[in-house]
Design a protein that fits this description.
Aldehyde Dehydrogenase, Chain A, domain 1, seven-stranded mixed beta sheet, 16 helices
Length: 503
């Protein structure tokens, strides 16, 4: 708990950023921001509403329709996005501290995030001028035909509370590189780093109205961002219930929608896997940020021949995990984000008992928590799960591993795919042929072989089925913020004389 008292201070901005100005909400309301490790209030930030969103969208609309940003050479847009990468690197420690104040995750995890974020801005900055269009063959003599990509327009971007700045950067960087103007909304409970990145963007010198930040709740601010006719694209990362509401609401104006809605990600361990490595990565796949990760491999399928040995190894390792404050260097896992979310995870412990599963370890709040007011939950191991249980189908979003025992490759694949989600999956085997077969059979946007929860900016990220629509990161992540235009030119046009030419 070293330095915890000093680390609770927050001296940053608490306002919104609209049309190049830092402003309070029209309503005059504010929201308390709480530190999850202790439950203490850190500060208050302004709480926006629908009218604030309308002003932000108007500013973004003017900047796109009348401003210079969409017409700015792509290389120049990319240069500014790269400058933002420089700013993230220069302010790495401050940003990491703010991220941990917001979320309760260990500050070391937040530092890793900042390194990734700088890389994301740099990648898209460098990619901005690499899309030169495409010449396509025309069937008409003496003509040329080409495809160009143009910015989609005003992008509304709604990011989640678990990785506030990382998920925001996945949206901000490609949108700016493509030439869009943006209206951002971080989660109302984790706004600090999104406020700070907006300050850094202001320092870089993006034109007025290109970047706008609105703070507030999803039910008000998020809804207006979705239905506002001035918005051309909505990008949302979060829960499936909210995602479906956004998809329906956006249909009235037929705007583009990009959704990343989480997953129930299977991690399949075959009997011939490298045992110790599979155990270690099973832990890594779940317990970072207390399991509050959309790609968490919380659903582990273990071949029956090694089931008991694997469970015993997990139990031993999990029992040693150190809970604690985000700024304590000894901490391995912090708290959940809020009391409300902890109550949700606790309800799944009741479900486990009702369904006949066995809670081998954890399943409750710590009896001697590091901080009495913090939202801690014990790392949990549950066995006796099968693919028909809610535990195997619903996203718990906490530090919970469930174990299913399978016999044979076919059964493993069938159970792994028996879910409405399809974000990611992993498998462990020394048999290369099996690895290729299973990877091909799994219905997921990302499949890891002998690894888990690895992503990098060059590779697209997104899911099959109800895990979402579209892709973030990679070249497809940039293309998400563009429209394709076909330009056709006839170089030797002559009259056809079809209508009215005959006398």
């Amino acid at each position: 708990m070293a330095g915890n008292v000093n680390n609770l201070s927050y001296n940053g901005k608490t306002k919104m950023y609209i049309d190049g100005k830092w402003v309070d909400s029209i309503s005059g309301r504010s929201r308390e921001i709480v530190y999850p490790c202790t439950g203490e209030v850190i500060t208050k930030v302004t709480e926006g509403n629908e009218e604030d969103v309308k002003l932000a969208v108007q500013a973004a609309r003017r900047a796109f329709d009348q401003g210079s940003w969409p017409k700015t050479p792509a290389a120049e847009r990319g240069r500014l996005v790269e400058k933002l990468a420089d700013k993230v690197e220069e302010n790495r420690e401050e940003l990491a501290r703010l991220e941990s104040l917001d979320t309760g995750k260990t500050v070391e995890e937040s530092r890793w995030d900042m390194d990734d974020i700088a890389g994301i801005f740099r990648y898209f900055g460098q990619l901005a001028d690499k899309e030169g269009g495409e010449i396509i063959e025309s069937p008409v003599p003496n003509t040329t035909s080409r495809l160009v990509r143009e910015p989609v327009g005003v992008a509304a971007q709604i990011s989640p509370w678990n990785y506030p700045l990382l998920q925001a950067s996945w949206k901000i960087a490609p949108a700016l590189a493509a030439g869009c103007t943006i209206v951002m909304k971080p989660s109302e409970i984790t706004p600090f780093t999104t406020i700070r990145i907006t300050e850094l963007a202001e320092e870089v010198g993006f034109p007025q109205g290109v970047i706008n930040l609105v703070l507030g709740a999803g039910a008000t601010v998020g809804t207006e961002m979705t239905v506002n006719p001035g918005v051309d694209l909505v990008s949302f990362t979060g829960g499936i219930v909210t995602g479906k509401k956004i998809l329906k609401a956006a249909s009235d104006t037929v705007k583009k929608v990009a959704l990343e809605l989480g997953g129930k990600n299977p991690n399949i361990v075959f009997g011939d896997a490298d045992f110790d490595t599979a155990v270690d990565f099973a832990l890594n796949g779940v317990f970072f940020h207390a399991g509050q990760i959309c790609s968490a491999g919380s659903r582990i399928l273990v071949e029956s021949s090694i089931h008991d040995k694997f469970v015993a190894a997990l139990k031993e390792r999990i029992s040693n995990i150190k809970l604690g404050d985000a700024f304590d260097p000894e901490t391995e896992m912090g708290p959940l984000i809020s009391e409300e979310h902890r109550a949700k995870v606790e309800k799944y412990m009741a479900v486990a008992k009702e369904e006949g599963a066995r809670i081998v370890l954890g399943g409750e709040r710590p009896r001697n928590p590091p901080h009495q007011g913090g939202y801690y939950f014990m790392p949990t191991l549950i066995t006796g799960v099968n693919n028909n249980m809610r535990l195997a189908k619903e996203e718990i979003f906490g530090p919970v591993i469930t174990i299913e025992s399978f016999d044979g490759e076919e059964e493993a694949v069938r159970w792994a795919n028996d879910t409405i989600y399809g974000l990611s999956a992993g498998l462990w085997t020394k048999d290369q042929d099996r690895a290729e077969r299973v990877a091909a059979a799994l219905r997921a946007g990302t499949v890891w072989i002998n690894d888990f929860n690895i992503y990098f900016v060059q590779a697209p990220w997104g899911g099959y089925k109800q895990s979402g629509l579209g892709r973030e990161l990679g070249k497809p992540g940039l293309e998400e913020y563009t429209e394709v235009k076909h330009i056709y030119q006839n170089h030797a046009n002559e009259p056809v004389n079809w209508f009215g030419a005959k006398k």
